[in-house]
Amino acid sequence: MRVAVLSDIHGNLPALEAVLAEVETCGADAIVLNGDIATGPMPAETLDRLAALGDRAVWVRGNGEREVADAFDGTLAPGLPDVVRRTAEYCATRLERRHRALLADLPLSVTLEVTGLGAVRFCHATARDDAEFILVDSPLDRYREAFAGTDEPTVVLGHTHMPFDRLADRRRFVNPGSVGMPYGAGPGAHWALLGPDVVLRRTAYDLEAAARTFRAEAADCPGLAEFIAENLLTVHSDAEALAAFSGT
Question: Which stretches make up the Calcineurin-like phosphoesterase domain (predicted)?
């Protein structure tokens, strides 16, 4: 059993297409979609592409799925930051009922048996919360608390868009990075291949062509210019991202 992990796609269809083409050459038996799948410029097209994967796709809920579903249903929490609210509402206007059905009742985490690694827990943020930040330099106590009640020797998480592979309290924690909005690494689409070990991957794609696609197909996406400039054509450094997430 080999598993490709795609996290934080964020509606970046060109990046997703590039990764899926590479996944097909790697012999992956399953593709874990590790949350924050559609919240970005091309949400409907991204969901349609992933739905076409059929049973190979294993879906995990991120905060983005929860927020977009709430926006579609008209129950979005009023206290969300403006940028989160506007993005969720934009995505909801682009979706149809079939897309909403894909987001219904997604699990907070899943566990799969992976060759060479044994039981692996997959979650978007932590095993208890879809929006909690766990960083490569988070204290061990933070890891223990966030994953209390789970005992898989390997855990794969996302949410912070920063790839890492570290030990914490005798367990291995892996963040594959972000397919659509990478932080702390080079431009391109970041993901991971599991089995028999963990390999952090980066797939190059035509960033300028992707930017043209977004301007043509998603001109009304809130903050599109910033998305292209800061998450596509350039990438925030690891120091910038860690400082932002830790509030320093």
Answer: 1-187
